[in-house]
Amino acid sequence: MEILGKIIQVLPLITGQGRNGEWRKQEFVIEIANEGNFPKKACFSLWGDKIDQAGLTLNENVKVHFDIESREYNGRWFTEARAWRVEKQPQSSNSPIQTSSPQIPTEPSASFNESPVSDDLPF
């Protein structure tokens, strides 16, 4: 899955020691783009080397590619949104996605009745 938004908070790096060695976790919060008057927020986690690859910067527009994972512990369920790639997006004033307007030609290049006739096939 993927989602567009602006990074509004980068939480402290968490490290620990597991049976497979040392681990690192970095969480960050984005404000989801195009949510109208009541913008939504979502917290994502990055693990290991993906932390260095992402290069999280506050107030930066990003596209987050993520998976949602839930697990049970002592009868309770915990859900995590794990980011596996964070792409930086171009900064804009109001909207995170800019569209370009179509170009309208000022002079017609050929009329509809005039079509070049060619018996040469390109293949």
Order of helices and strands: EEEEHEE
Q: Span between N and C termini?
A: 42 Å
CATH architecture: Beta Barrel
Question: What is the makeup of the main sheet?
Answer: 6 strands, antiparallel
Structural class call reads: mainly beta
Q: Estimate nothing, just give the exact number of structural domains.
A: 1
Q: Tell me, what's the shape?
A: globular
Compact description:
The protein has one helix at 50-54; strands spanning 2-10, 14-18, 21-32, 41-47, 61-73, 76-88.
Q: How would you sum up this structure, described in words?
A:
It is a single chain. This protein has one helix spanning 50-54; strands spanning 2-10, 14-18, 21-32, 41-47, 61-73, 76-88. The protein has a single domain, classed as Nucleic acid-binding proteins (OB fold (Dihydrolipoamide Acetyltransferase, E2P), Beta Barrel), CATH 2.40.50.140. It is mainly β. It has one helix and six strands, in the order E-E-E-E-H-E-E. Strands 1, 2, 3, 4, 5 and 6 form a six-stranded antiparallel β-sheet that branches. The longest helix has 5 residues, at 50-54. The chain is globular and about 70 Å long. It is 4% helix and 48% strand. Strand 5 and strand 6 (76-88) form a beta hairpin. Mean pLDDT is 81; it is low at 94-112.
